[in-house]
Design brief:
The complex is a heterodimer of chains A (185) and B (392). Chain A is α+β, with helices and mostly antiparallel strands. Chain A has five helices and seven strands; from the N terminus they run αβββααααββββ. In chain A, the strands form three sheets. Chain A has a three-stranded antiparallel β-sheet. In chain A, a hairpin with a 6-residue loop joins strand 4 and strand 5. Chain A is globular. Chain B is α/β, with parallel strands linked by helices. Chain B has two domains: 143 residues, Aspartate Aminotransferase, domain 1, CATH 3.90.1150; 238 residues, Type I PLP-dependent aspartate aminotransferase-like (Major domain) (Aspartate Aminotransferase, domain 2, 3-Layer(aba) Sandwich). Chain B has 13 helices and twelve strands. Chain B has a seven-stranded mixed β-sheet, with helices on both faces. In chain B, helix 6 links the parallel strand 5 and strand 6. The radius of gyration of chain B is 22 Å and the shape is globular. The chains are: A alpha+beta (185), B alpha/beta (392). The interface between A and B is medium-sized, with 35 and 29 residues.
């Protein structure tokens, strides 16, 4: 089910831990969706001098966090902000379709930590991050209440894709996650 | 590498004696039981013997047993077949919140045909209160379905009491006994059920073997129309080898049920006591005593099930989990949530199922390798770090 690279990062994750005097901390996810990640960064000369993470989640979530931490270490903040979920998944040799959302979380957590650092540097508080309370709408990233049928922010009617089981627009033609055709009821 | 298979709830090994019984019907005895010649009659006799053995396991008579191809089919057959054939009684169905998806989804499907349903809650141990079922019954309730035992948490439901409530109100009662049959004694007369699903594979029979008991005189509509097989209640050429294997597995289960249960219970309790005493913040899910003898399930705080499952697999230990991440649908087990567990705790689900070949050594091995896995995953969990900080 997982590539050798995913299993390696799951078994031997790089950069696990916390940083006591972190310059930035980013937290995403919640147990309702299945995964939580916290990233800690130390910044020196606009570069990520140290990246540590902690993850509550599946094998893919742990491997993604490890890979993100490895990809980000030594990069400038601008380069790190350009790490995408796709580049993380690619580096890992691919992820199962229903685990692609884990790679979103990994990149989001890193970016949230950078945002936190920048906000502190500017003397402001970081913007409220998505995924804090419920799962996020796959269309607008707005917070979804548990068992919600309609996203409050973008008003799209949501349901479970019969193919991959993830939340998608039930009136859409294709599942936003796996691309399966959605048959009207 | 050392292996310990402890995922009986997903699949059980085929008993070699069952395999032996099946072999002739996979090789030479290929006749169609509906054929009138000797080839067919030989096959028919074998199927009827098997039906007798399955009936005996649950105290039924053989004409009350219809062979199907899976526990899910039996449940679909029961729900859809009983509801549609008895629509004149009403269009309201009552089920428990912890039923198997093959019951819950069959009800959803019936709702599209004009039925409505009520889900009865369970307590923290996963038990249904028979009085709650009584309160859920309406004038137009035609059918109630509550499982005999839940494979995810091991809890045994008070089926006889629920059946009594239903009988008193003239409502049909079905029970999904797929996880229970062959592991705890079941008698359809003593239980007072109208229909009961059971399957061969959880009692070390072949996959693709299952049955539905339907009490004599109860109307049911077939799911599969066609020929006159199974008394016209399920068309399709009989799966002779599977039926024969199921029959043999039922026979062996009936003969050995007490000794198997006693053995399993001892090993299971060793696992439960061992894990709870070795690792902090682990919760046993399900009922303490009203529990399947071969099942032990836990929620491990601060970590997620798939990580445990993968790590145990690397040590040769096979288990299941009800966590969101291990399910294709990415949703935590509806059973654990119905029992009132919070999402984070439900994510830490791990389910052990003992087979007849499980040894004390296997359990000791698990107790050796599992605690370090839990520690490793906790050390990288932000929830555990938060817990330690709050404690300090």
């Amino acid at each position: 089910m997982y590539s050798d690279k995913v299993m390696d990062h799951f078994q031997n994750p790089r950069n696990v831990g916390t940083l006591k005097d972190a310059d930035g901390v980013g937290k995403v996810g919640n147990p309702v969706c299945g995964d939580m990640m916290t990233f800690y960064i130390k910044v020196a000369d606009n570069r990520l001098a140290d990246v540590k993470f902690q993850t509550f989640g599946c094998g893919a979530a742990i491997a993604v966090s490890s890979m993100v931490s490895e990809m980000a270490t030594g990069k400038t903040l601008e380069e790190a902000m350009r790490i995408t979920n796709q580049s993380v998944a690619d580096e890992l040799g691919g992820l199962p379709k229903n685990k692609l959302h884990c790679s979103n979380l990994g990149a989001d957590a890193l970016h949230a930590a950078i945002e936190d650092y920048r906000a502190k540097a500017d003397g402001r508080t970081a913007q409220a991050k998505p995924h804090e309370e419920g799962c996020a709408c796959p269309y607008c990233d707005g917070t979804l209440e548990e068992e919600a049928n309609v996203c409050r922010s973008c008003q799209i009617e949501l349901g479970d894709c019969p193919h991959c089981g993830q939340v998608t627009n039930i009136h859409g033609e294709k599942c936003v996650h796996c691309g399966a055709k959605i048959e009207p009821d | 590498m050392r292996k310990a298979y402890l995922d009986h709830m997903a699949a059980a090994p085929l008993d070699p004696r069952v395999f032996q019984a099946m072999v002739p019907f996979l090789q030479n005895h290929f006749g169609n039981p509906q054929s009138l010649h000797s080839f067919g009659q030989e096959a028919q006799a074998a199927v009827e013997d098997a039906r007798q053995s399955v009936a005996r396991l649950i105290g039924a008579s053989s004409e009350e047993v219809v062979f199907t191809a899976s526990g899910s089919e039996s449940n679909n057959f029961a729900l859809k077949g009983l509801a549609t054939a008895n629509r004149d009684r009403g269009t309201h169905i009552v089920v428990s919140a912890v039923e198997h998806q093959s019951v819950l989804r069959a009800v959803k499907s019936l709702e599209k045909q004009g039925f409505r349903s009520t889900e009865v809650p369970v307590d923290a141990s996963g038990r249904v209160d028979p009085d709650e079922v009584g309160r859920a019954l309406a004038k137009d309730t035609c059918l109630v379905s509550v499982m005999t035992a839940n494979s995810e948490v091991g809890t045994i439901e008070p089926v006889a009491e629920i059946a009594k409530t239903c009988r008193g109100r003239n409502v049909l009662f079905h029970t999904d006994a797929v996880a229970a049959a062959g592991h705890i004694p079941l008698d359809v007369k003593a239980l007072g059920v109208d229909a009961l699903s059971l399957a061969g594979d959880p009692m070390s029979g072949p996959k693709g073997s299952a049955a539905l008991f339907i009490r004599k005189g109860v109307r049911i509509a077939p799911l599969i129309d066609g020929g006159i097989q199974e008394g016209g209640r399920r068309a399709g050429t009989e799966n002779v080898a599977a039926d024969v294997g199921f029959g043999r597995a039922a026979e062996l289960a009936l003969a050995e049920i007490d000794q198997r249960a006693a053995r399993a219970r001892e090993l299971r309790d060793h696992l439960i006591d061992g894990l709870l005493s070795r690792v902090e913040h682990v919760v046993l899910t399900g009922h303490l005593t009203e529990r399947l003898p071969h099942q032990a399930s836990f929620c491990v705080r601060f970590i997620e099930g798939e990580g445990m499952l993968l790590s145990l697999d690397m040590k040769g230990v096979a288990v299941s989990s009800g966590s969101a991440c291990t399910s294709k649908s990415l949703k935590a087990s509806h059973v654990l949530l119905a029992m009132g567990l919070d999402h984070a705790l439900a994510q830490g689900s791990v389910v052990f199922g003992l087979t007849s070949s499980t040894t004390r050594d296997d359990i000791d091995y698990v107790l050796d390798v599992f605690p370090p896995i839990i520690k490793r995953l906790r050390d990288m969990s932000p929830l555990y770090t938060q817990f330690l900080q709050e404690k300090a």
